[in-house]
Model the fold of this input.
Amino acid sequence: MLVKAEARTASWMAKGARRAAETFPAVLTHVAFLAAFTFAAAAGAEERRSSNPPLPPARRAQIALQQMTDEEKLSLVHGVIAARWGGEGKPAGSIGSAGYVPGIPRLGVPALQETDAELGVANPGNVRPGDEAAAMPSDLSLASTWDTPLARRQGQAVGGEARAKGFNVLLGGAANLIRDPRGGRNFEYFSEDPLLTGEMAGAVIGGAQSRHIISTIKHFALNAQETDRVVLDARIDRGAMRESDLLAFEIAIERGRPGAAMCAYNQVNGRYSCENDWLLNQVLKTDWRYPYFVMSDWGAVHSTIRAAMAGLDQESGEQLDTQNFFGRPLAQAIAEGEVPKARLDDMARRILTSIFAHGLADNQERSDPVDFASSDKTALAIAREGTVLLRNQGLLPLSPGVRRLVVIGGDADRGVLSGGGSSQVVPRGGIAAKVQIGENRAMIFDPGAPLEAIRRQFPGARVDFDDGSSPARAAKAAAQADAAIVFADQWKTETADAPSLELPGGQDRLIDAVARANPRTMVVLETGGPVRMPWLDRTAAVLEAWYPGEMGAEAIAEILSGAVNPSGRLPVTFPVSEAQLPHPKVQGDPNGAPTGPVGRGGHYGAIFTATYDEGAAVGYKWFVEREERPLFPFGFGLSYTTFDLSGLAVSVNGVNVVASVTVRNAGGQAGTATPQFYLSGPNAANIPLRLVGWDRADLKPGQDQRVTVSIDPRLLATFDEAARRWRIEPGVYRLTAGFDSGRRELAASFELQSASLPP
Done:
């Protein structure tokens, strides 16, 4: 068994090593070690502590590895929950949060202090009493900016705050595609498109890691719904997966170079993600040349030998697994030859290489105090740029001379809504409001009441409030006002998908009643994804503010007054109804499936299969293929000014395609345009429509700007899984430019020759 296990390990390690040198030059030295995975003893000047900064990260990792005992290596590959659990206290040495892996002080290897930090530094269960954090807008809000430099700023802000609190691993970088608009964690995800998701997630990751911290990328892969996520087998064609969900991860890894990849709860094509050889060894570590480590999600490990040999490097939050698979069982498997010792070395080496590459060993002291003023500016910028104006019948911006306004519903007198689950932040200033949902869940509102922010923007107006509990009373108040502003919300959370796209709690009836009473009614949505709008035609304006974070109230009020010109663009398609979706009903049992172990060996049983037969046709691509018209298309967003495009041009040099267009502000106000480029291919290429690039342009009235994008060759291709290659079909391709996926005003054709690209 030992010989067979060594041979299997050698095969994929050698392949991955050869590819790693090309993508991650910082670990070039590591490649030689992986290819041979036998090492000469360090000699001369290299016989020093592994914490010597001048050496390359891979060399430092190797020096540390050579000095480690087997017990120390094993201590790196499994971690615990960094909080009270199962009657045990918080682990000694841990700050307190999601996870903790002890360090090896004698070798300069720091402990891994892990925190959930997708939207700010979390404080689960108040494990750090009184510790508050900047509450950033949702990733949907951030993605609506289509602004990668701003995404990097968000990562820097959260990463800097985490470092100041003593953390060195951020459990962020959620790069899953939004396949179903009802998904409970959609507010943590970026978009339905792999290019937009990959670019934005990569920018956030890169920003966080600039603070000498490891960021994960997660949840690898196809964690597309919360319903039955631990017992779900996601079935999808591998080629289609490469062109959609996996492409988002691939782009994000290339842009952000995350120090860890977190495998998901669900199965993919019959294998759990954390013991899926195709995902972890073949795709991630070999095809994509990934040199760092794979950690599990908390409670996502189901085996020792299968998981270790499939590419899992670290078991996280082991108390949530049915047993500690990577502790004593892994030591026993190595002793019995079921897992080669070289595999343990590879697991530890990958973790060490990431630690050294991202500066954790050289920056073990806490950084300077948190710069909350900078975080506030970043949060405000995201909320301003990420709010999407969906409808405006001339009502917005409101006249500065307006005399009487009424604000209705959505707890707008208390705060702004946030999403639930592991990403929940305890905001600075404390929780503004908590609304209980059942026995074990509560909606959390961040501080900053929109009502007060609106009053500040309109000091000369009388601004009343009605809580919206009585549609009749709210309608009466609206009839007496110059304009009515209805706040409507939809709470989403990890572990549960929305049952429908309907606004909960009778809010549709409330909006309808108010709009009938006053045609100058606007709706401000605070949602975790798309919703139905049966009242749309009766309203004068609609703003999608998502979960806007700690500065959200200010941003909303500024847009209503015209102090800020809205520039957000939808990162997801809004359907008219669920009937337009690939799956009109969420797959699985919404009342919950068994979450405990079933069957032999303490493994979870996949009790149902979620079939993603739409393949790569996610979001707007599904609508295009079926010639369905959505409520609002992907990329859509209005402004208080107007823009036009001209002069679309395409240049081709082999597989390198460059597109450019001129965008002009044709209106009377300064504003930001986001011209988008889409591609359609010949029939053989099977590319009905793909986003292939975009840019943002800040323009004064009458100003124009030439926008140029280089198209990733993979976006010109389809994936041939049998050959493990991207293939560009020969023929004539059509490039269009416009302001959303449904409004593509200009077109140009170009020809490509047959070509093949590496995976």
Remarks:
- The first helix runs from residue 2 to 23.
- The chain has 19 helices and 31 strands.
- The CA atoms of residues 504 and 648 lie 44 Å apart.
